[in-house]
Amino acid sequence: MNLCWVVCWVIFLGVSVVSPYVAAAATNASLPSRPAIVNIGAIFTFDSTIGKVAKIAMEEAVKDVNADTSILHGSKLVLKSQNSNCNGFLGMVQALRFMETDVIAIIGPQSSVVAQIISHVANELKVPLLSFAATDPTISSLQFPFFVRTTQSDFYQMAAVAEIIDYYGWKEVIAIYVDDDYGRNGVSALDDQLASRRCRISYKVGFNSGVSRGEITDLLVRVAMLQSRVIVLHVNPDSGFLIFNAAHYLGMTGNGYVWIATDWLSAVLDSSFLPPETMDVLQGVLVLRHHTPDSDRKREFISRWKKLTGGKLGLHSYGLYAYDSVWLVARAIDKFFDQGGIISFTNITWLRDTERGGLNLDAMSVFDNGSLLLNNILHSDFIGLTGPMKFAPDKSLVQPAYDIINVAGTGFRRVGYWSNYSGLSIVPPETLYAKLPNRSSANQQLSTVIWPGETTSRPRGWVFPNNGKQLRIAVPIRVSFLEFVSPIQGTDMFKGFCIDVFTSAVNLLPYAVPYRFVPFGDGKQNPTYTEIITLIATGQFDGAIGDIAIITNRTKIVDFTQPYAASGLVVVAPFKKTNSGGWSFLQPFTPLMWAVTASFFVFVGIVVWILEHRINDEFRGPPKQQFITILWFSLSTLFFSHRENTMSALGRLVLLIWLFVVLIINSSYTASLTSILTVQQLSSPISGIESLKASDEPIGFPVGSFIERYLIDDIGISKSRLVALGSPEEFANALQLGPGKGGVAAIVDERPYVEIFLSTQCTFRIVGQEFTRSGWGFAFPRDSPLTEDFSTAILQLSETGDLQRIHDKWMTRSMCSLDDDEIEADRLRLKSFWGLFLICGIACFMALVIYFLQIMVQLRHSDLAHPETNVNSISGRFQRFLSLIDEKEDPSNRDRKKRNVEERSSEDQLERQSKRIQTETKAEFNSKQLTL
């Protein structure tokens, strides 16, 4: 029996093991047999910097694929290479030749120009085109579905360049590029990335790929005349080194310059060994390089590469992408065969040339299963030498990242990384992928860079252009308040407070600023400053100085420096002197304050009467006498002359708190009345902007000022109420006339103007508080580097006290303008004393609560002692409660209670004394016993 069980188990296990192989064999038998050879093509420039490395890398990848038994399963991968020589027409011809050899995928080209052309061929012939070096961001997967980029697009590289520029605070750059699809489209992507960060390319310089040394020199001479010193170089290696040599000859690789080269230079640095004289030219250059994470496979391949090339040729990132591209195609082909794919082609009959027949176009054929192979490529997911080979929905590789390297000494060093995930960092991107993305400015950082000129100080990034052009600085021609800015007769110069601040700030700048003042205005009325700001934004002026207020609408189109003068809107109105009269004693308190104070006097008197009525004879008697007692007691506390004594603890507590409140109120009233009777008071029907808004009287404002729009749009005052006034004389005349005679009720203007105006007009005053906070600043075009430097200079003037000295020089005031206080007399209001009244009210309330609780307890005890007198109805119990309140407490009861307490205290004392004597006697007895 046991032997039978063993035989059954062996048969069962044999079936279980054999059945998968049988199923697999059946499946393979149902699939078409794999071909012995699979042809793929490669188009690139053999003798280029990228091509030399890519050729060896792809050949090694083919060897590795054919040596790996887990892929292709017997089919041999054959790579057929063609030299495009960076020529679009030649590249197209070579691509068409592949159709004669049953090529099912093409790797390459390395040139974006050639890729644009070959993509059309790949589209029509349904052959996937995998480019490991074409970085033109405009080659779209929508236009060219069969184009697959197996490297990163320049869209991301230019984002990295833009973030570097923004990180160092530069606003303008110069772009030098080769004038083809690769150069133009890359710089266009850079322009877009900079614009999103409020930076821009101030000058673009394009040139042909076959440019001569003389043409390059002329080009750089024009660049040297410009303002920006930040240069982005997006070219090919041959022209790139030509530019660097010419720049070095012109002194443009020294201190103050910034050179940022795209990944063309990193490819040369990684694969070639440059002579010392070439490295000297590149000192301080920032270079971008495709980031490929460190891994064991990558280190093993680099070691193998050194043995393979004898150390004469380095390995750059494009070589790694070329290697991974071969593996990408191989894996996709393997999956293609697993899905039952067959390599077959169909001739293109519609391209047949029926008239001449010389082009032999009918030899071209379409790959029947190209879409299936393309789909396998786009859905690949494996780890290559360059990192994850996985495509996003837009057919771009995931996790784009770049190394940022700095050429220094005889080599280069990495100063940081950029990734689309977290921006700039000194930590490898693969470390940050495990964390939440953080692109805050505090998290963006790079290591110290050695800039051209062997300095670690960040270059300013710009200088004044060396073309003799002066800055055109607009200066308004004012007809009033000439203390701020006014022309000097017979010259083209100006004087005033604003002019002195500007010239002092210019003297503090670390460089010379050539400028000339351009008058703006007709000299008949003050110009509109908003128009000046608009002309700066349109480029007619390079800046503007003067009494220009910094307001929101203006900051949207230009940049302002740090404010050099505080400014805000105030209301100026006429005032009249008011002398003290017969009713002046009522002025210290507002009506509400008088009402609340009087109410509390009566309220406290009633509370004390309730608390003292049962036990104090002075608070008893006929109702009329009690009413007089309450009034007399409450009013006499004002002078601390009350004659009635308080006997209850609660009454004394309430009285103590109330006397403290009376003391504070009495002292405040005395001080305020003294001020009213001894100091001359000013009065005005207008107390500030709110009362002015509530009225319907006309309001004056300076002509050409932003105040008109502010009063209409922000305050909500009708335009029909506003009257434009052009000079201080018109201000005074309109205020003196008043609204009844064609004048204005008040004027709204900026404080600096008002201070000057009031220095000569002593019949007007500022009423209310300043209701806006702003300042005056110098205006420059958006993102102008002058803005930051002038702001720094203004802060230096403020710190050294020079700004205040300039202010005092031009804006000295007479004595009548020093009284800027609010016109309305400071009357004592309830809000200044509500805390005292609250404390007193709470004390009275708590005293009444405690008192009534005591009465309720007494009522309860009375009911228990005399049950025959119990009344069950609510009205009866309430009457009993009122009678108990009105009932005079018997003094004998209080004396009896007091005697009982004293007797109990005496008994307790005698008992304690007896116990102490017993204890002492016992202790003495014990002591004698011990002695015996």
UniProtKB/TrEMBL annotation:
InterPro entries, from UniProt?
ANF_lig-bd_rcpt, GABAb_receptor_plant_PBP1, Glu/Gly-bd, GPCR_3, Ionotropic_Glu_rcpt, Iontro_rcpt_C, Iontropic_Glu_rcpt_pln, Peripla_BP_I
Question: SMART domains, alphabetically?
Answer: PBPe
Where is coiled-coil annotated? none
Q: What is its main location?
A: membrane
Q: How does it sit in the membrane?
A: Multi-pass membrane protein
Question: Could you tell me which Pfam families the record lists for this protein?
Answer: ANF_receptor, Lig_chan, Lig_chan-Glu_bd
Question: Which residues constitute the signal peptide according to the record?
Answer: 1-24
Q: Where is this region: Disordered?
A: 889-932
Q: For this UniProt entry, which segments traverse the membrane? A: 592-611, 653-677, 833-853
Q: Which family does it belong to?
A: Belongs to the glutamate-gated ion channel (TC 1.A.10.1) family.
User: Could you identify this protein by its name?
Assistant: Glutamate receptor
Q: Which organism is it from?
A: Crotalaria pallida
